[in-house]
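> tool_call: predict_assembly(chains=two)
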Amino acid sequence: MASSSRPFMRALARSTVRTPKLSACEPLDITDIPPTPITHLSETEALMKDQVSKFASEVILPKSREMDEAEKMDPEIIEQCFEQGLMGIEIPEEYGGAGMNFTAAIVAIEELARVDPSVSVMTDVHNTLVNTAILKYGSEKTKKDWLPQLATNTIGSFCLSEPISGSDAFALKTRATKQPDGSYLLSGSKMWITNSLEAGFFLVFANLDPSAGYKGISAFLLPRDTPGFAIAKKEKKLGIKASSTCVITLDDVHLPASALLGREGEGYKYAIGLLNEGRIGIAAQMTGLALGAWENAARYVWNDRRQFGKLVGEFQGMQHQLAQAYTEIQAARGLVYNAARKKEAGEEFVADAAMAKLFSSQVAGRVSGSAIEWMGGMGFVREGLAEKYWRDSKIGAIYEGTSNIQLTTIAKLLQKEYTG
Amino acid sequence: MSGLRILVPVKRVIDYAVKPRVNKSQTAIETTGVKHSLNPFDELSIEEAIRLRERALPVSDILALSAGPAKSADVLRTAMAMGADRSIHVQVDTEKEGDLEPLTVAKLLAKVVAEEDRNVVILGKQSIDDDAHQTGQMLAGLLGWSQATQASKVEVEKEGSTVTVKREVDGGTETLRAKLPIVITTDLRLNEPRYASLPNIMKAKKKPMIKKTMEDYGIDIKRRFKTVKVVEPAPRQGGGKVEDVDGMIGKLKELGAL
């Protein structure tokens, strides 16, 4: 079993972009802390990793294949994720959450993905996008209204993408109109909405003032039972099939003034901020997936499968491939953990997050693809999980910013740094 | 203090999923660079103690204890994250001193029972490293308490003075009834231990862990046994396949079994 204490490639974790600007959240002062291996975990993080890993392999794993075939998240798994505190990782104790740090969330997402990337993305979107949105931008009342529910029984969904706006997210067409009494009417449709089938809470981005362009975008809190809200269609997907992805329609949805998150016209800022952090979550999902796929294949070739009188994992051609793949996974993990710790320390992390997501999704695709070949026929059949890991990996290069968008972000920041 | 005052001794052992390997000098099992975790039988003990409390029995305190190297603090943290109220870490340099023998541990526990005024000790029937299966029995002997070993079910009367324990024995189940105080050792089918939830892991950070030494309790850790040699079991000879029933009968006759 691989653990975080394994050697890693530190050099790759160093970003070339470094600006002293601090982000809005409360930073940890790490100036006096001697450098430690980037994958070193605190006692609490390590204990949590251990417990989540056990929960994932003993409770989720036996249902993983079945949920994938049924294209449905088992409600019992959702309930157990809430019970374990996996849905309120960073929510403070006073609101019923665990009150852990950002890296703890990253570690949990990674451990879940090592076993089931669908369950992992459910917790990832819920924690890093929805919970964080309310923690960072919500009023005290909003926090009191929603955080206890989000921590214990209500799944959250992040509704930004639309049929016509994906990578160009701020071209969104969903309209919000302010009523004379200060309330809002929302109309439009949303697409590719993760968790939407199971969610009880939706964070919806809509434009309040299209004449102001993206500066009209505002964020609204929408409970599922609001009249005018409907799930139009559930997508049938290649991978992460147990995680629901739906089209949502908003037909004159009436929301009170208190449903506005933060301030009018600041929705685009919130979305950018959240997605910058969220990418580290997706990156963790991808490194967890890669590790899970690698371990699944490694166990098979080093314990079970014999050809020409020896274990196939004993052939040098196989050994070198396994070593190469594991090295790439560790390099990706270095990027992910470094981005997470930089975020936690209040350092600039946008390029790091983009690099972590770009690279880890590439590694996940490569490793899970090779793992099928290492396992031969047993990798190709739907009896085991090898083919599932590979299908699940494809989404990594698409959601929360495609690989090309990550490259554009990285290049833009680099160019700024290197322009005279 | 009234009610049940429970002591749950726990041990940090090589993880059950790791294949143990004998070290080069053939003196012990290789422990460096190997994943360790809480002894599975001890997980059952903690779980049972918490369940007694959850059944609204008068449990006033659940104390976890571990005697071992600095890293043993990890298993105590796990025990407290699961639900133990506090813990004592008796620091022992097992690297230098070797693993503690069951009698040494039993003597230590007897001291702790007296100092901490315990009336129930729930401990794993064995630890999966040396599989000695002795500590609980020795402890009951030293204390002169009732003992119920290999428990598969534990029931305590509401008033909390009589304990009924079902234990799996050859050919059936034996039911024992005893008055407090009592030593109970846990067996696999007693319960299914919970996973520590994230909020409880955070809460465990605030629970007290007291550091002690064996000298504090006046226990001599000198080993009475000397390990002569540790060897891996001889590899099993692979079986053969027979074509049909006649083949099998022939084979059995050949081996003198028929």
